[in-house]
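Running co-folding for N-(aminocarbonyl)-beta-alanine.
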Amino acid sequence: MSTTLIKGGTVVSATGRVAADVLVDGARIVAVLEPGSTALGHDLASTVDAVIDATGKYVIPGGIDAHTHMQLPFGGTFASDTFETGTAAAAWGGTTSIIDFAVQRTGEKVQDGLAHWHELAAGNCHVDYGFHQIIGGVDEDSLAALPKLIDEGITSFKMFMAYPGVFYSDDAQILKAMQISADTGLMTMMHAENGPVIDVLAEQLVKQGKIEPYYHGIARAWQAEEEATHRAIMLSHLTGAPLYVVHVSAKQAVAQLATARDNGQNVFGETCPQYLYMSLEEQLGAMSDEWGGFEGAKYVCSTPLRSREEGHQDHMWQALRTNDLQMVSTDHCPFCMKDQKELGKGDFRAIPNGIGSIEHRMDLMYQGVVTGQITLERWVELTSTTPARMFGLYGTKGVIQPGADADIVVYDPNGHTSIGVDKTHHMNMDHSAWEGYEIDGHVDVVISRGTVLVSDGEFHGTKGHGSFLKRGLSQYLI
Ligand code: URP
Ligand code: ZN
Ligand code: ZN
């Protein structure tokens, strides 16, 4: 086993920052020491196998992206990142664990969907990975399978109030699944949008000839998000199920979550970088360009981008500060323009939903520190510590302390990152919704369980290094 000393940096946690050296032995952190400590009677730097100089830099726990979709089947195609390409991109961006979504659809057995996801990921990942379980078909069989997931290390499942005919669950199905969630402690994750209402609005728009990507966001009105969020909260209240609402983008949905939390409910919410930075107005602007009005397809995701005029983006930042929202995940769901997004050229409903961001989450959220939206500590909390606690990984992940996995990022606040397909892009996509974003900060070194994956602008990872994470129940419940 080899030893590494990360020396001279500022160790940042969710609760504070301290000048300290971090000693790694094999895959674990074994000590957090006073800078230059000679507590053991000698200068550690001269006896360890490797020294990483972190002078002037932040030393943070590796990012945990708790919402990704590698190879997700959607709209007649598949998300374009494999577990291999997507986890390499994650590592480049300072994310050392992901939680992806195994898929079960109507008529399929949960166990089969899960086994398939294990096949896709095993031996292919560069960073550690866990799974949530999508229940796309709630029936007696899938309900019976839910409690058994806990022994498999899968302690959360997602249902959809959107996408009728695909992944959709009605209220009766949701109620039954939530009763099991309440009994077992499994976290219910919810895609909270009123799908039937959205589908009618979308059909009406298309009939009026409004077929461009921008109308995706018009059909998916914030009222549909607020209403579904409220309904999910009420069903969680009725059953006692812990509820985690994914990809929140409407300020009205945040207000629903805040009220429920004020009432003492175990209700949580995540947002994603796109809802902090991008807007419906930008998507409108992309209607008249070289793509013939279609460039807005790169912004098509659900929930959709919201109007900046209505102030949703500022409200999301505020909710992150006040803990009305607890986490930032990417909902990484990449599709290329060519042959994928293009499927919806004549009808926005056929555009596969999703944006690729796994590589940029740590940088984009650090930009919130630079602009004063969040503190340094909150950056770590939102991107690593809370994801670990929320999804049963805390202690081994999400923190720099003795005994934890040595998942560590050395982040240079004086570095710079220019995001662009030809610059810093390792995701398997032919475009980036983040093209042209400039970040004051840089992911310098990325370590996963003691192994350096990225340093000096070079990738040293090997596929298969990433291990499956058997998760415990949430450590975040009140
Ligand atoms: O646009 C999105 N979010 N695509 C992925 C599927 C989902 O609903 O998370
Ligand atoms: Zn969703
Ligand atoms: Zn998603």
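Result summary
Residues 63-390 form a domain with the TIM Barrel fold (CATH 3.20.20.140).
The pocket of zinc ion (ligand 2) is lined by residues 191, 246-247 (CB under 6 Å).
Job closed.
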